[in-house]
Amino acid sequence: MTPPPYDAIILGAGGAGLMCAATAGQAGKRVLVIDHADAPGKKILISGGGRCNFTNVHTVADRFISANPHFAKSALGRYRPADFIALVDRYGIAWHEKTLGQLFCDGSARQIVEMLMAECEKGGVDFAFSTAIGEIGHTDGLFRVAGAAARALVIATGGPSIPKMGATGIAYDLARRFGLKVVEPRPALVPLTLGGDDILFRDLSGVSAEVEARTAKAKFQEAALFTHRGLSGPAILQVSSYWRHGTPVEINFAPDAPADWLVQIKRDKPKATLKGAVSMRLPDRLSTALVERLSGNEANWGLMPLGDVKDALLRQIEGRLSRWIFQPNGTEGYAKAEVTAGGISTADLSQRTLEAAKVPGLYAIGEAVDVTGWLGGYNFQWAWASGVAAGQAIASRD
Ligand SMILES: Cc1cc2nc3c(=O)[nH]c(=O)nc-3n(C[C@H](O)[C@H](O)[C@H](O)COP(=O)(O)OP(=O)(O)OC[C@H]3O[C@@H](n4cnc5c(N)ncnc54)[C@H](O)[C@@H]3O)c2cc1C
């Protein structure tokens, strides 16, 4: 005898899929979660350096990138950081705010996975791990996957960032299979690589500084880190999500300096050298490299006493240091990207339920969708919120 169909099959046991499964299951729906991995929540386990930055208290829709900047508002507005914090508190998981509203577990990210699995257990959710998705059938209102059938199907397989963790772009194949559009996926929250003249900066590998990084549409003031391939650190990861090939990234190396700061140092300490003055604000190796590049062929320029340098030139140098142009030649790609920007087009999904308008019963949630958060807990908040929104919609299906 064939078993009765499930109410929903959820593809992917990551943050979004588990949250969706728990929500629908606890509302009395029969739910099966399928994943090719041998265990749930692998990205949760490695997130936030093993402590999972599980939300950001400053979550608002404009901290997410999407072709439709309004799309995420509905789900994010109905399941807020406070709701997830209340869940974490119910499980007695200790947490702390690190910086900029980012909440981390005091202990381990494993606590979050265990909590989500306990929530699924409360909802009687079934799991099929180490299971390939294979061909999906869709006839008579039933979706058929890996020998099981259900009246609703949820795509929660994330994006292709970090393939060695089992990440794939299957979400996009599934979306296309059902006639949904896909916004060109690209690596995001990813280090940028430098070439050409900028290659010399690779010598600074390991040096970091607080900067303001800007691309056409965005600016972030946080740490930047020079690497053996280019630029990384939070400020760079943040702008990388907005960066497009062929465009520059502008760095302000003295974001908190008052106007005329070099002229002021000249007044106070006329014997100080330019290198010395710049290193009052930046690490030595970085200030040496920047001043050498500014001076071009004038090798000793950086060692001249400031008293001998005209104010106008010092102002010019200030200007260069506050608008240093890098021309990244690429990113470190999906192998190093924390998330994938782009994805299943929001144009084909309901912002309230995440259901595909063209295919009743088909849902897409989490990173698979063209909604990408900033660094700092925003991506998990989207995973939870979109999972709950779809889970509630499944719960209210007849
Ligand atoms: C190193 C790292 C650190 C991060 N740290 C943070 C952080 O601290 N805070 C934050 O907010 N975000 C963080 N992120 C981003 C965050 O992990 C993701 O945005 C989030 O996990 C997305 O959840 P999801 O459920 O949509 O997808 P995923 O968590 O990627 O889950 C998808 C699931 O689908 C399964 N799957 C994929 N392909 C297939 C297939 N072909 N067949 C069957 N199953 C499949 C996978 O095995 C996986 O279980 C981090 C990401 C990385 C890579």
List descriptors.
alpha+beta, binds flavin-adenine dinucleotide, 398 residues, 7-stranded mixed beta sheet
Describe what you observe in this structure.
With 398 residues, the chain is of the alpha+beta class. The protein has helices at residues 15-26, 42-46, 73-78, 81-90, 110-122, 170-177, 234-240, 261-268, 274-278, 284-295, 311-322, 378-395; strands spanning 6-11, 31-34, 53-56, 64-65, 95-97, 102-105, 126-128, 136-139, 142-145, 148-155, 182-188, 192-193, 208-214, 219-226, 230-232, 249-252, 324-326, 330-331, 339-344, 362-364, 372-373. Strands 1, 2, 7, 8, 9, 10 and 20 form a 7-stranded mixed beta sheet that branches. The chain has a 7-stranded antiparallel beta sheet with strand order 17-16-13-14-15-12-18. A 3-stranded antiparallel beta sheet has the order 3-6-5. The site of flavin-adenine dinucleotide has 36 residues, from helix 1, helix 2 and helix 12. Flavin-adenine dinucleotide binds at residues 12-17, 35-37, 42-43, 46-48, 52-53, 133, 156-158, 161-162, 166-168, 170, 338-339, 366-368, 377-380, 383.
Euclidean distance between termini CA atoms: 24 Å
Counted by DSSP, the helix tally is: 12
Number of strands: 21
Estimate percent helicity: 25-40%
Q: How is the main sheet built?
A: 7 strands, mixed
Distinct small-molecule ligands in the complex = flavin-adenine dinucleotide
State which percent range the strand residues make up. 15-25%
Estimated radius of gyration:
25 Å
* Structural class determined from secondary elements: alpha+beta
Oligomer: single chain
